[in-house]
Amino acid sequence: MEISILQKARYAYKPKLPAILAEELEHVTVTLGEPTEAPADQGDLKLYFRCTYGKPIALIEKGENENIGKKLAVGVILSGGQAPGGHNVIAGLYDGLKKGCRDSVMYGFLGGPSGLIENKTLRFTDAIIDEYRNTGGFDIIGSGRTKIETPDQFAASLETAKKLGLNAVVIIGGDDSNTNAALLAEYFIERGTEIQVIGCPKTIDGDLKNEHIETSFGFDTAVKTYSELIGNIARDANSAKKYWHFIKLMGRSASHITLEAALQTHPNICLISEEVEYRKQSLAAVVETIVSSVVKRAGQGDNFGVALIPEGLIEFIPEMKKLIEELNDTMSVYGTEFAKKDSFIERLYFLDQYLSEPSYTLLKNLPTEIAEQLLLDRDPHGNVQVSRIDTEKLLISMVEKRVEQLKAEGKYKGKFSSYGHFFGYEGRCAAPSNFDADYCYSLGYTAFILIASGLTGYISSVKNLTAPAHDWIAGGIPLTMMMNMEQRHGVKKPVIKKALVELDGKPFKTFAAARETWAVKTCYQYPGAIQYFGPSEVCNQTTMTLRLEKS
User: Fold this and answer.
1) All domains of the chain, ordered by start, with CATH?
2) Residues annotated as part of the active site
3) C-alpha angle with apex 424: 418 to 428, nearest 5 degrees?
């Protein structure tokens, strides 16, 4: 099969490594610090993780390591949604493993965690790995969202690992996947095995981070991809001067993608879910924020604009959150009876007896298309699938209605025409930026060092990321150190806490200081396509979020 010139060039790209990982591996070791604590719920977490709680932070440094050269067998899992750079994590792990001992073997579990449960594997070779270096996607072995949570699933996972003679399993995933990694590590120890489990921090949403995990991989590439598209649309809007573009961006639980895209492109409106929740803003108040910009810009002859909207916004609007909760509770009890209602009107009347008056009134007053999405799109647990709700269309409809009111009152004389967009899958499998290619390769290589050093229940960590790759700091962080207890389906469970946008953080404050100007003036920035070649400040730059957080 013929491949593109760019892809050929990317195959040839040699990812940069922290200086310590470029050493001869027999001179690389791990030093351990003091025992660690979780930020909250320490007592409960100690009961869940009797064998692995409180492990020390690991730092990779120079030193003798007699275990590096031992033959190992390692299995790797891609878990959850795709993120640019996953193939390089696998390549880094493979290269480290083979450099340590050429006879070592590595398996990929097909289709995510279910591959471990069902023993569906691919044995990696040099040729297979070389075909996927520096490429986007997870197609080397595929991914999946199966959770290892039942006794039978844990037992089957252990049986697979034993049959393959594995020394370790590496789980590449987000907060839920790495929580699973911690539970699996604990389970393996409890069953008297020495099979290790190491995690790697993946998610384009950017919500798996802390002081030791400075960013999750894939965020850099995904947001640069979205920002290119937003910049293109902004340029088009400024050229045609007749459309408002409402752009929904991925990020259900956190607004990191939307905030970073705003910092890169300077839209007229950028809504941050965490701020909406903090201020307890109503849906009407959110709409008024947009309308204010529409009216002011129309007053100066600019009947166009760009608005960025996080995917999960409606769950952060108090009255919408309450409505969704009441719908979920109602469906959990009366879902079968509700499903027998044939029309939207019948379903609406049915809910009148179960929803509170404010929630029912809100549901009735929503655009019919949105109300139907709230009622019809359910996940396997009977909950509203918020990510499928066309929030951008909801806001367009409400802004149009409000603008018409102002026009009738003589307070608005402009024109309002709009387009809605949703950018999600466009960024998840993009060819990784140089940063993500380097970072992911380093994470995989680091995971090998942690395995060779006998560690389990850790997540691979590479820090100091705003410095040149040579100066990055590699190590491992105990997974239990990142956890708290949360209510999931009526039961308190240990989970890695999602990192939301911090309203007192420098990225948000930088945005907040400029948004009043952006709301009125046309200040668009056009980031352009990801650059893989050229000056370092062009092709190796990190996200603005990371630069601001570490400045």
Assistant:
1) 18-218+433-488 (3.40.50.450), 244-416+505-520 (3.40.50.460)
2) 205
3) 155
